[in-house]
């Protein structure tokens, strides 16, 4: 303060305005390129299903790529989270093209994987290249990386509110940089807007009926939330155990080969490709009519094999599939609308797996409308509470995030 007036650092304001603009445009543009490419490879595989038989070869290609050139980035999202917690080395830019290529190859040949991991890694990798030219200190670097995560998530799903909270919630630490909250929101909204400007559309889901809340329906919602939480536990543990089992193969490039063989065998046994790839058509269908009770279990199995053996992609869209089809199947037993239960499961299984209930409640409102908000909140919070501490993202043992749903005081300690 000088002469009774507050000093204002215009250079800092300009620096951060430029940083947020660069990161948001980069995240939105890379997500648009990725989503367009992913749509193309998915459509091409569906019209040329013989490509599924090449999945073991695709696995070998991905394994060799990462073993020979990408060992520094093979840990994917967990590497990003580790660097945010303890900023040291720059995230190698090679992460961006490697995860993009690995994910597209995985989907081209029928691996059961998602897309959020790719978007997060591309956005974080691009963002972290800026910390040296802009001479950012460790706290500023954390803020920029959190902004990148928010922008990447928001742009790939078209949910800016959920994206902003996801970037904050998934990294909830004891000493969380409160200054990251505004950049996370700006990055999420700008990133989603850039992707929307590219003309890449996002899938729309429709819940036809949302009944008024009653004590009985609340009880059914709690019961469904418990089942969604248990499904999340099954997914997380299955993926973890299969990942550990794959290590009996000492040469890493051969691990996805075996995973590819198992996926091809499942395809031949099931005589169906509905459990491969993203599975978006099956998710949409689950909102309209009850899914088969085994659908969510088979998706858990094939996704755990795909990711556990080293293919690339993400977990979130498969988690949407698992939750939506489980919720849809529950409509056969619970007297609630099929679309509502599918929507509750869609967000609740992800909430329990990623430990992000608040982001998932907002996602439900953005995707399905505010009328389902209370049901989504019940399902997300109950699923989160029964799912335990283990989730899809691994953190250093002494840096496990503290969730502000039950301990927001940790932000200010």
Can you tell me about this structure?
- There is one protein chain.
- By secondary structure, the chain is mainly alpha-helical.
- The protein is about 65% helix and about 0% strand.
- The protein contains 17 helices and no strands.
- It has helices spanning about 10-45, 55-70, 75-85, 95-110, 115-130, 140-155, 160-170, 180-195, 215-245, 255-270, 280-285, 295-310, 315-330, 340-355, 355-370, 375-385, 405.
- Helix 6 (about 140-155) runs antiparallel to helix 7.
- The longest helix is centred in the N-terminal third of the chain and has 38 residues, at about 10-45.
- The protein is globular.
- About 55% of the residues are buried.
What is the compact description of this entry?
By secondary structure, the protein is mainly alpha-helical. It contains 17 helices and no strands. The longest helix is centred in the first third of the chain and has 38 residues, at 10-47.
């Amino acid at each position: 303060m000088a002469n009774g007036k507050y000093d204002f650092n215009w250079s800092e304001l300009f620096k951060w305005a430029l940083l947020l603009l660069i990161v948001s445009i980069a995240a939105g543009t890379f997500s648009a390129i990725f989503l367009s490419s992913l749509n193309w490879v998915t459509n091409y595989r569906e019209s040329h299903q013989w490509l599924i038989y090449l999945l073991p070869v695709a696995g070998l290609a991905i394994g060799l790529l990462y073993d020979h050139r990408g060992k520094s980035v093979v840990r994917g999202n967990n590497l990003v989270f580790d660097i945010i917690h303890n900023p040291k080395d720059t995230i190698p830019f090679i992460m961006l093209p490697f995860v993009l290529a690995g994910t597209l190859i995985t989907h081209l040949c029928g691996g059961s994987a998602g897309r959020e991991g790719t978007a997060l890694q591309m956005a974080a990798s691009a963002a972290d290249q800026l910390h040296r030219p802009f001479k950012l200190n460790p706290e500023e670097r954390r803020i920029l990386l959190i902004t990148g995560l928010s922008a990447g998530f928001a742009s790939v799903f078209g949910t800016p509110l959920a994206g902003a909270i996801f970037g904050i919630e998934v990294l909830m630490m004891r000493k969380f940089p409160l200054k990251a909250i505004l950049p996370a929101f700006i990055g999420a909204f700008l990133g989603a807007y850039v992707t929307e400007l590219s003309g890449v559309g996002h899938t729309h889901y429709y819940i036809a009926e949302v009944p008024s809340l009653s004590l009985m329906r609340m009880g059914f919602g709690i019961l469904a939330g418990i089942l969604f939480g248990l499904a999340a536990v099954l997914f997380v543990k299955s993926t973890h155990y299969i990942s550990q089992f794959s290590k009996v193969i000492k040469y890493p490039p051969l691990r996805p080969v075996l995973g590819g063989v198992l996926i091809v065998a499942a395809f031949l046994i099931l005589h169906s490709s509905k459990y491969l790839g993203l599975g978006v058509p099956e998710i949409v269908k689950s909102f309209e009519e009850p899914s088969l009770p085994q659908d969510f279990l088979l998706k858990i199995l094939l996704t755990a094999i795909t990711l556990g053996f080293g293919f690339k992609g993400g977990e979130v869209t498969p988690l949407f599939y698992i939750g939506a089809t489980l919720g849809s199947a529950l409509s056969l037993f619970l007297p609630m609308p099929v679309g509502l239960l599918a929507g509750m499961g869609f967000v609740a299984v992800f909430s329990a797996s990623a430990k992000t209930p608040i982001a998932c409640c907002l996602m439900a409102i953005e995707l399905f409308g505010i009328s389902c908000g209370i049901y989504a909140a019940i399902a997300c919070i109950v699923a989160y509470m029964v799912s335990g501490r283990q989730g899809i993202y691994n953190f250093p043992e002494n840096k496990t995030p503290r969730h502000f749903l039950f301990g927001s005081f940790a932000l200010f300690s």
